[in-house]
Specification:
The chain has 199 residues and is mainly alpha-helical. The chain contains 8 helices and no strands.
Length: 199
């Protein structure tokens, strides 16, 4: 059982990590555009709000006829669930930068690009990172459902425990997911405190 559990934990982290990489690649630029361009903000935040309301299992099942079963649709579905909190937090962080600071940067002759990378992005980073932290925890929890489309992970242990009425397997899978989520929460929480101290 323990060998299977370890393999499933590695697969679980692989699914969640791949989904987070994809979500960051999409969510960060979309959030930055939303924070800088009011005309784009409504559309981006509207879609993000809709994404936040969709149940994890529903997203997985909606992608099933389009992408089939396995890890790829699971990663895409998990990324779709992780993008909204990233977009919302990045937008919030950028819009939270004081106007006086931006005026001072402009007065020093900084270009718009320079202001963004040297002033806005560093000041917005702590708030933006809170969205990444939320997305990471939700992705680890939701990755449990990937077992329903054959993607593996710790959800396999939970489902197998339910199907065979084996509490030991069921609890092992559930506790492993909880431990992973807690470990990631603690690690990212420490990173967040460092970013806040430097901002």
């Amino acid at each position: 059982m323990w060998t299977d559990l370890a393999a499933h934990a590695v697969a679980h982290l692989g699914l969640a990590g791949s989904a987070m990489a994809l979500a960051l690649a999409v969510g960060l630029p979309v959030g930055a555009l939303a924070g800088n361009f009011g005309s784009f903000r409504g559309l981006a935040l509207g879609l993000a709000s809709v994404g936040r309301t969709l149940p994890s299992l529903a997203v997985l099942m909606l992608l099933l006829p389009l992408l089939g079963v396995g890890a790829t649709p699971a990663i895409i579905a998990l990324a779709l669930l992780a993008i909204p909190p990233i977009v919302i937090a990045v937008d919030l962080g950028i819009r939270g930068v004081p106007a006086g600071v931006l005026d001072a940067a402009a007065g020093m002759g900084m270009t718009a690009t320079g202001r963004f990378f040297r002033v806005v992005a560093p000041l917005a980073l702590p708030v933006s990172f809170s969205g990444v932290r939320t997305a990471a925890i939700e992705t680890i929890a939701s990755a449990t459902l990937a077992t329903f489309i054959g993607a593996g992970g710790l959800g396999d242990d939970i489902v197998r425990g339910l199907q065979t009425n084996d509490p030991a397997v069921l609890l092992a899978g559930a506790i492993a997911v909880a431990v992973l989520a807690l470990a990631v929460e603690l690690a990212l929480g420490a990173v967040g405190r460092v970013l806040e101290a430097r901002a």
